[in-house]
Amino acid sequence: MIFSISQKMEYSYGTFMGKLINVAVPGTIDERAINTKRVLNPWERNENHTLCLNSAKAIGCTVVNIGTQDLVEGRPHLVLGLISQIIKIQLLADLNLKKTPQLVELVEDSNADVEELLGLAPEKVLLKWMNFHLNKAGYEKTVANFSSDVKDGKAYAYLLNVLAPEFCNPLTLDTKDPVERAKLVLDHAERMGCKRYLSPKDITEGSTNLNLAFVAQIFHERNGLSTDSKKISFAERMTDDVQISREERCFRLWINSLGIESYVNNVFEDVRTGWILLEVLDKVAPGSVNWKHASKPPIKFPFRKVENCNQVVKIGRQLKFSVVNLGGNDIVQGNKKLIVAFLWQLMRFNMLQLLKSLRSRSRGKEITDADIMNWANRKVKSTGRSTQVESYKDKSLSTGLFFLELLSAVEPRVVNWNLVTKGESDEEKRLNATYIISVARKLGCSIFLLPEDIMEVNQKMILTLTASIMYWCLQHAAEEGEVALSPANGNGSTYTSDTSPAPSISGEDERSSLCGEISSLTMDDAASDITVS
């Protein structure tokens, strides 16, 4: 990959990656939150990279082993790996029934078949689509990958001939030279509107990423699927309602951010074996899973799935989750309401455990939902502002102003108040909400909510946002305290990093107030505003 000097500057400042993420999933980053001065200081540059990494995580990228310093230094294998993930997400964005209901043509008209399609990874759907057309074209083999199975170019020739017969060239299949056939395939694709960005050599050498991208481009240009209104209507009926879809998205992204071995494409389908839930439980509550009694997919016998899911429910009960109406078989059968309720408790448990991990500095006290809200109110009040909220369902939260004041309280210079609206109309609320999410990610918060969650005051997502800000604030204060107390150059002097944030505008010393902030929290579990039905 070759960059000009200006592109390298743009890349090193994080703006290139931010723009690429917005191309992949429009609206992910509010570009008003990106620092765009001609010359950025290290702190501002770090903010941009932090925003990019948290936003990449929020669209489904795996960023477990990459940090801001890797972006600053431009480490090729890590940076190109992240860029590859972002591009892949963009290329495969329409390979689902919600975006392309015509895909229902790939399966029989039955709920079971459609549910199976819903559970497939996008690249698997793309292979299924390719084989669907190859079968119609009389191609005798099944393409199972985007490398060795397409190296000779024959599958492409058959695919393009059935999708765009008007551009068919008989020489494509007649030639014996794979490189020449690959060249003719690319010529055919170009005539039907596909831009040429890979070479014949990329096809013949079996480059997985480039071949996947090529097939995805063909799909976008001409998918050759039916426009049968009855089939499309059937597919649309199978998709989830808006609220369920938003919660599924949030839990899917959260699970994928944990760095477990499995990757979730569709929560309601992928958790039915119980294995992924066991992986998540082991991540958030290490040692809780008895792996000797767990079966790893693929699982042939249904009772093995039930055994996995029964262990999931058992662990949930041990962690004091509300699982009264939940049985292992409910998960196996894909009961969406019960799965969402369990996942919410699991995500909430993880948040509270992260906050509890600071107990060495908080005298070992538990932290509850109510404590998080009390902390947020007190933090805003400490800056001299009067805004206060009563609960996670307080309608005033829809304006976004409270969260902007909270973000400004934990890091004064992170919010540009010239960009903030009064939050009176829906459009003003949306502008504030999108800005809040990007500012929080820029600060370092790992969050997966959408602007609509703030505008509609979704209690669960409001709690995750508040808890994430609190965790960042307390963790950052602790880290700053450790740095300040550590001797530099052996002479006991205080070390000050170039990238340290500005001091609090309230004059409060974050390091000395850390224990006070947590120990003064009121520990009343019954006061929690969030309940799971």
From TrEMBL:
Q: Cite the entry's keywords alphabetically.
A: Actin-binding, Cytoplasm, Cytoskeleton, Repeat
Report whether Iron shows up as a keyword of the record. no
Compartment(s) of residence: Cytoplasm, Cytoskeleton
Keyword Lyase listed? The answer is: no
Regions of compositional bias (Polar residues) in chain numbering = 489-503
The main location class comes to cytoplasm
InterPro entries from the UniProt entry: Actinin_actin-bd_CS, CH_dom, CH_dom_sf, Fimbrin/Plastin
Ranges for domain Calponin-homology (CH):
1-91, 120-223, 245-351, 366-474
Chain spans, region Disordered? 489-512
Q: How does it assemble?
A: Interacts with F-actin.
Q: What is this protein called?
A: Fimbrin-1 isoform X2
Can you name the source organism? Gossypium hirsutum (Upland cotton)
Q: Upper taxonomic classification of the species?
A: Eukaryota, Viridiplantae, Streptophyta, Embryophyta, Tracheophyta
